[in-house]
Design a protein that fits this description.
The chain is mainly beta. Helix content is 14%, strand content 37%. The relative contact order is 0.24. Residues 1-34, 116-135 and 196-200 have low confidence and may be disordered.
Length: 200
């Protein structure tokens, strides 16, 4: 093993912090991965009431289920969505069943910087995303930002559907992956065939 690799391995073993830092900002986006059928004017129907925890302004959703509020409530390398409301409240906020109009859809990419030890552990576990280049980031969160509007619940702002993936080879979620993340909690109306997942 080369001396450089040995030094790198020693450094990895010494880093102890396990938290993740995400810096956001618009970067180059591959529009070939865009879920084209999700467009302004469509409806997003919430089928049952959900609760935004106190002291927060968002709720994580994965596999069709709201996730408990904690430091990392979801599996980041699998599709999930985050429902965002306008204001952070001390008390819980209940979002009642409703039909929201999709007003805008954007693609974004968020650079994820993991402490090196944690990044090495995720790679050992079979996850993508270990990148030790000059940029210093280990993964990219590929985000589809879906902005929502409701006359009865105007505080509901958006639904961000995403997953972490490899910085060089990752892709935004397909329509099918977004539907898998939402499960039966949300329904996109009208029903959209999953034709774009074939790449045609």
């Amino acid at each position: 093993m080369r001396p450089f690799l040995i030094l790198t391995a020693v450094y990895l073993s010494l880093v102890s912090c396990q938290t993740a830092t995400i810096s956001t900002g618009n970067v180059a986006v591959s529009y070939s991965n865009y879920p084209l059928n999700i467009s302004p004017g469509l409806k997003l129907k919430l089928n049952r009431a959900i609760v935004i925890p106190g002291e927060t302004a968002s709720l994580h959703i994965q596999d069709g289920e709201p996730k408990p509020q904690q430091l990392n409530p979801v599996e980041n390398y699998r599709p999930y969505c985050v429902l965002n409301v306008r204001n952070r409240m001390a008390a819980t906020q209940t979002i009642n069943p409703d039909t929201f109009t999709i007003t805008r859809v954007f693609l974004n990419e968020e650079l994820v910087s993991l402490p090196v030890k944690f990044a090495s552990l995720t790679m050992t576990a079979g996850y993508p995303g270990l990148y030790l280049g000059a940029g210093g980031y280990t993964a990219v969160s590929y985000v589809t930002e879906i902005y929502l509007e409701s006359s009865t619940q105007p505080d509901v702002v958006s639904l961000d559907c995403k997953q972490w993936d490899d910085p060089a080879m990752g892709a935004h979620l397909t329509l099918q992956e977004i539907k898998l993340a939402l499960g039966e909690l949300f329904t996109i109306q009208p029903e959209i065939p999953l034709t774009e997942t074939s790449g045609n």
